[in-house]
């Protein structure tokens, strides 16, 4: 950070970008004015200092009077063996200074005195005596100097905070203020505000809000913040509005964050009457016990001039007795003896946990951002030591080696086991750097037989330096994995780390082979995307290896431990999909800056990436035209027209042509399109129901007229012209002043809106428009004749541009910001600065070093448990933390769900292992003879190898072939040489013909719960039955084939019924045993299979060979709510085609509003339970519903199903529910 006389502080956004998205500019500026003193430079002190220096305070002073000892090397990562005997601060200072050139580091080697600490804004004490804590902390309290005291003893940690008598918190949670569009405001004493029903409001009682853009009741615009009371999912009250003008329309309500004052007690006072922040709600009594225990340790040291010896029973008894004297109730806990026996322990992951939390408290003290700890925080991880382990003084005796601090806790034998571990780390970013540091410090893979691998494809960028602490400015441009590995090898020269630069995925399974995975003891993820995590998780399940999974988002973080045979896997649950922006909102009706930024990204991708990719393929790929002509609908014409424009019509000869092109693009986007939109829908346009068209979420736009003197207009043209020139490989560039002068001279023909131009106002209309028409063969040939062949264009260069948000010189973000803000100006949407635009358009994940360090510390604590061979699930901890609140939540990992077939239990970790090659017939016989299972379907990947309904000649041919040959024949690919085993998925019946296994290849949730063989379980009591179809399997042909209907009904629906019955039986059994974990776990199975049964039971009735059309009240309702039957069909079809993955599209009835509505539900989520809508008609878009007939062309299936829609059934469902509503 630099001093700037006009703006106070100028923040280096290229360095601090990810942290800025966590803290914000104001908090960072306040931090940049803070002087921090950190006392104690052992492992805990240096961890705090590292995070604070990375965070960017004004200056840091480190204080320590001691010299480096063997015990320091267990966790002090800036000390080396050659530093033993040197003053710690002398060694640490230059290494800390490398982390951030903006933060000067000073040293102080004397004892702390009150006069010295008075010069600081924040004082941090580590490894200090209670006398020093009391003296310094109480003095600071009188001077309003913030104090943080932190300490660790083995697997125990402590933090104390005192931020003075009146500390201001400006933002207690760091969340973005909520805002919603207003539908109505009552003129009443309550002042009830109703929000648009496109999303539920998430305000809380006591929040404060203000308003903008309200028409009618204008007194609320920019009003003083008003306190609210929530009344419902869409309503809240703001107090008396009875004297205000009547509400007309519009308005945006926005949450206002208010500052709050917190009063802290002094150290001495708080020591006697403590307030605790709970770290683990399963250990609710633990803080009070450890509060007494830590005080007892201080008393022991006062009397003995040393800490209790490792595993010294006599010393531990003395500490326990001292604790009883301090607190007769809480001091009697056995946990205090554990604390005493580990008191000399010094563990790197514990320093990471306590040090990162303490560092975040320092940042809170400096900035007033987030809620501080009030006032004591205790944490322990005693579960890391197996319950049945008996350690002696001899086991834990110091060996004068770098691991003495760890041996004091776990013993020498455990250290040897750690050293010989073989672990694989995927990712060397922020989490990866912290992970490698911890691995090196604890001695993982540092023994003669130990090995560790880290892989990461990325290179180091400047924005990484703020939180990926192993990297330095001189490393920018180098590979992350090699740089990180080298840095950790310097921390511990015996660290056997092997860096690699490979992506881990199907394409590198020849590198990460069976031998590689089978040799591992475990895998740790340090990834930032879900797809890669799921892939690694599935590999770990396949090879039955433990996986340590973690992630961060700003101040939030989570840890998950996956244990073979014990827990569910990472893929067993998943986050809800991101909410998408409707197409029409993006194209014509944006109402938020997020919409305009997404539109800008789409513009960038379409103009500078996708279009040139097509042109480039035309130039280089001889089969491009052949493939293009096979595309459906109007895509061939659109693609070839794009190629023609780029290679012929709009090909620039010089840079001036690029300026002209950019100027025309401005005119088209911000003037002409808006004119046409307003021509179709004037400002006073009303709908068929006589309501204003431009109301609710629709904002009436206005055109923008180019002005070269307007910096934002010019920004757009400059960026677009330069990107255009880059596309064509032009090396020449023009400066801004030249572009401005040239653009001023450009005169364009004024656009006149035309009649007959259709503009879609809903996504269904847009989908219908896209489906209309097809390519005219003559027109296509004419287009092709107008594009020169590749030989004629020899030498022409054109390249696609990949969006890169972090290079401020490449014009990418310049284009995005200008493109988005100009569109926002069109629609009177508040614009966004470059910083916010980069966050949204670049989909940046906010990050801060403290959260990363904490999460990795928690991961390593779980690693200790895995290495020690623990298997009991209650000893492990999944964790979720939010340092802003602060909140710490831990829970046992969820056990892997168990199911049964015959008398055998089965989990996702089970599979059938069949050794040796055999024919398909031999395999089928093997399952019947050995397992009593009749295989009805067999697949490998996406290839169906065998099924009971397969044509007889095809079946006979395959039965005699080797399985490997069947795979080659069906998949039409070779089996890679590195593949030693084929994973086959089966569906089969038992000897009585009852289905025992369900093959649902595309069923992701089911797959995650049940794994490779897709085992389902039969119910002990059949509560639900498979309904008969009201027609034959072939009755719906040609629209839905008999094969599909038979498979869909007799196999898939039957599987849902069987699994539902079994789940209910298992739940009842678990309830009778008081097994709450199993009850909770099986809810997922219940929801999935119950939803499948409910949905399909409706689906069969919704279909009929007689088809029909809607009539009566239903027809009138469709016309009222959709305009026409065709529009309703188009809307549902568009919704069905757009479902990501698997799921359903529904026509539903909203009883509360007496309206028809459409909705999509993922997987087998039932409509009514998910949305409250009554299901009338559903379209199943799971692949098993159409793939055998329509392959992957879902739109054709969706269009065809309307031919067999049973409108009598749909109408009966509608009428019966309306009658129920009338009776109520």
From TrEMBL:
Q: What GO MF terms are annotated?
A: ATP binding; metal ion binding; superoxide dismutase activity; ubiquitin activating enzyme activity
So which domain of life are we looking at? Eukaryota
Q: Which CDD domains match?
A: Ube1_repeat1, Ube1_repeat2
**Which cofactor does this sequence's record say it needs?**
Mn(2+)
Q: Name one Pfam family in it.
A: E1_4HB
GO terms in the biological process aspect are: DNA damage response; ubiquitin-dependent protein catabolic process
Q: What residue ranges are annotated as transmembrane?
A: none
- EC number(s)? 1.15.1.1, 6.2.1.45
Q: Where is the active site?
A: 584
Record-annotated Ubiquitin-activating enzyme E1 C-terminal domain positions: 876-1000
Q: Pathway it acts in?
A: Protein modification; protein ubiquitination
Q: Name one GO cellular component term.
A: mitochondrion
Q: Describe its assembly.
A: Homotetramer.
The family line of this record is: Belongs to the iron/manganese superoxide dismutase family.
Protein's recorded name? Ubiquitin-activating enzyme E1
């Amino acid at each position: 950070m630099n001093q700037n006389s006009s703006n106070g502080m100028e923040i280096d956004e290229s360095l601090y970008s990810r942290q800025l998205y966590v803290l914000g500019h104001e908090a960072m500026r306040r931090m940049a004015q803070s002087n921090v003193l950190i006392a104690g430079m052992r492992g805990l002190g240096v961890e705090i200092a590292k995070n604070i220096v990375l965070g960017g305070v004004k200056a840091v002073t480190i204080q320590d009077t001691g010299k480096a000892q063997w015990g320091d090397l267990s966790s002090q990562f800036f000390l080396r063996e050659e530093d033993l005997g040197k003053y710690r601060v002398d060694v640490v200072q230059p290494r800390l200074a490398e982390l951030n050139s903006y933060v000067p580091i000073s040293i102080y080697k004397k004892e702390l005195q009150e006069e010295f600490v008075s010069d600081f804004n924040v004082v941090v004490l580590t490894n200090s005596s209670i006398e020093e804590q009391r003296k310094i902390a109480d003095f600071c309290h009188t001077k309003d100097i913030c104090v943080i005291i932190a300490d660790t003893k083995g697997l125990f940690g402590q933090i104390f905070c005192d931020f003075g008598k009146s500390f201001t918190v400006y933002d207690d949670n760091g969340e973005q203020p909520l805002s919603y569009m207003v539908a109505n405001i009552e003129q009443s004493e309550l002042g009830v505000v109703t929000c648009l029903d496109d999303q539920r409001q998430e305000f809380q009682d006591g929040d404060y809000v203000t308003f903008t853009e309200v028409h009618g009741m204008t007194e609320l615009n920019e009003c003083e913040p008003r306190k609210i009371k929530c009344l419902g999912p869409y309503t809240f009250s703001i107090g008396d509005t009875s004297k205000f003008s009547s509400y007309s329309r519009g308005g945006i309500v926005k949450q206002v964050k208010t500052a709050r004052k917190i009063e802290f007690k002094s150290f001495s006072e708080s020591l006697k009457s403590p307030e605790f922040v709970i770290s683990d709600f399963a250990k609710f009594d633990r803080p009070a016990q450890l509060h007494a225990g830590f005080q007892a340790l201080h008393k022991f040291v006062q009397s003995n001039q040393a800490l209790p010896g490792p595993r010294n029973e006599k010393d531990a008894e003395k500490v326990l007795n001292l604790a009883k004297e301090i607190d007769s109730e809480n001091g009697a806990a056995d946990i205090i003896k554990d604390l005493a026996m580990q008191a000399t322990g010094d563990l790197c992951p514990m320093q990471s946990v306590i040090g990162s939390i303490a560092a975040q408290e320092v940042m809170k003290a400096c900035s007033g951002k987030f809620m501080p700890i009030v006032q004591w925080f205790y944490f322990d991880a005693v579960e890391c030591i197996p319950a049945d382990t008996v350690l002696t003084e001899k086991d834990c005796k110091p060996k004068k080696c770098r691991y003495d601090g760890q041996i004091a806790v776990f013993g020498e034998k455990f250290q040897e086991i750690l050293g010989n571990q073989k672990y694989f780390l995927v990712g060397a970013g922020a989490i990866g750097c912290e992970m490698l540091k911890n691995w090196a410090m604890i001695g993982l893979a540092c023994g003669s037989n130990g090995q560790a691998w880290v892989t990461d494809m990325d290179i180091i960028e400047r924005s990484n330096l703020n939180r990926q602490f192993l990297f330095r400015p001189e490393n920018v441009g180098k590979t992350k994995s090699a740089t990180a590995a080298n840095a950790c090898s310097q921390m511990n020269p015996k660290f056997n780390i092997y860096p690699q630069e490979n992506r881990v995925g199907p394409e590198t399974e020849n590198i990460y082979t069976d031998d590689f995975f089978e040799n591992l003891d475990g895998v740790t993820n340090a990834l930032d995307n879900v797809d890669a995590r799921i892939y690694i998780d599935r590999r770990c399940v396949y090879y039955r290896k433990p996986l340590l999974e973690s992630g961060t988002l700003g101040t939030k973080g989570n840890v998950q431990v996956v244990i073979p045979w014990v827990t569910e896997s990472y893929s067993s649950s998943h986050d809800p999909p991101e909410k998408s922006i409707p197409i029409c909102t993006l194209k014509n009706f944006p109402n938020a800056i997020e919409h305009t930024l997404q539109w800008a990204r789409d513009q960038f991708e379409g103009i500078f990436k996708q279009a040139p990719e097509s042109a480039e393929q035309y130039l280089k790929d001889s089969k491009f035209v052949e493939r293009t002509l096979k595309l459906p609908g109007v895509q061939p014409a659109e693609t070839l027209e794009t190629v023609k424009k780029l290679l012929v019509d709009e090909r620039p000869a010089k840079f001036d042509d690029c300026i002209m092109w950019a100027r025309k693009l401005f005119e088209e986007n911000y003037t002409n399109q808006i004119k046409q939109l307003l021509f179709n829908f004037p400002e006073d346009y009303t709908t068929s129901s006589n309501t204003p068209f431009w109301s609710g979420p629709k904002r009436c736009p206005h055109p923008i007229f180019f002005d070269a003197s307007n910096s934002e207009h010019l920004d757009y043209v400059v960026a677009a012209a330069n990107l255009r020139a880059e596309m064509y490989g032009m090396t020449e560039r023009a400066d801004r002043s030249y572009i401005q002068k040239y653009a001023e001279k450009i005169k364009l023909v004024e656009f006149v809106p035309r009649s007959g131009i259709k503009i879609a106002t809903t996504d269904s209309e847009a989908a219908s428009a896209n489906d209309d028409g097809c390519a005219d063969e003559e027109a296509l040939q004419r287009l092709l004749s107008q594009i020169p062949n590749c030989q004629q264009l020899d030498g022409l260069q054109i390249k696609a541009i990949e969006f890169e948000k972090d290079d401020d010189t490449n014009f990418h973000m310049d284009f995005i910001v200008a493109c988005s803000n100009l569109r926002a100006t069109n629609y009177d949407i508040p614009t966004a600065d470059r910083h916010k635009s980069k966050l949204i358009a670049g989909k940046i994940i906010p990050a801060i070093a403290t959260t990363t360090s904490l999460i990795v510390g928690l991961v390593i604590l779980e690693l200790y448990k895995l290495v020690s061979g623990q298997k009991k699930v209650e000893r492990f901890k999944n964790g979720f933390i939010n340092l802003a609140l602060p909140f710490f939540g831990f829970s046992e990992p969820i056990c892997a769900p168990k199911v049964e077939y015959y008398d055998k239990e089965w989990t996702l970790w089970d599979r059938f292992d069949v050794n040796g090659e055999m024919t398909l017939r031999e395999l089928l016989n093997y399952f019947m003879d050995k397992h009593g299972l009749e295989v009805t379907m067999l697949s490998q990947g996406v290839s169906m190898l065998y099924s009971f309904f397969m044509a007889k000649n095809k079946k006979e041919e395959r039965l005699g072939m080797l399985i490997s040959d069947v795979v080659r024949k069906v998949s039409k690919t070779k089996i890679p040489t590195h593949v030693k085993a084929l994973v086959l998925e089966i569906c089969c019946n038992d000897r009585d013909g009852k289905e025992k296994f369900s093959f649902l290849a595309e069923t992701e949730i089911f797959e995650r719960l049940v794994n490779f063989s897709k085992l389902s379980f039969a119910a002990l009591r059949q509560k639900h039955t498979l309904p008969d179809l009201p027609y034959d399997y072939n009755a719906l042909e040609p629209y839905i084939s008999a094969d599909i209907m038979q498979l869909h009904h007799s196999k898939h629906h039957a599987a849902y019924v069987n699994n539902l019955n079994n789940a209910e039986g298992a739940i009842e059994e678990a309830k009778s045993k008081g097994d709450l974990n199993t009850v909770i776990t099986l809810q997922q199975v219940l929801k999935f299979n119950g939803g499948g049964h409910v949905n399909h039971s409706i689906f069969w009735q919704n279909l009929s060979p007689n088809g029909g059309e809607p009539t009566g009240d239903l027809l009138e309702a469709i016309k009222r709510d959709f305009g026409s039957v065709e529009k309703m069909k188009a809307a549902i079809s568009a919704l069905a085609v757009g479902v990501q993955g698997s799921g359903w599209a529904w026509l539903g009835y909203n009883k509360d509003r007496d309206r028809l509505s459409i909705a999509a539900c993922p997987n087998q989520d039932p409509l009514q339970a998910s949305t409250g809508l009554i299901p009338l008609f559903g379209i199943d878009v799971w692949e098993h519903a159409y793939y055998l007939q329509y392959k992957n062309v879902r739109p054709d299936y969706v269009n065809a199903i309307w031919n067999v829609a049973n409108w009598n059934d749909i109408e009966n469902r509608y009428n019966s529910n309306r009658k129920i509503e009338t009776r109520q």
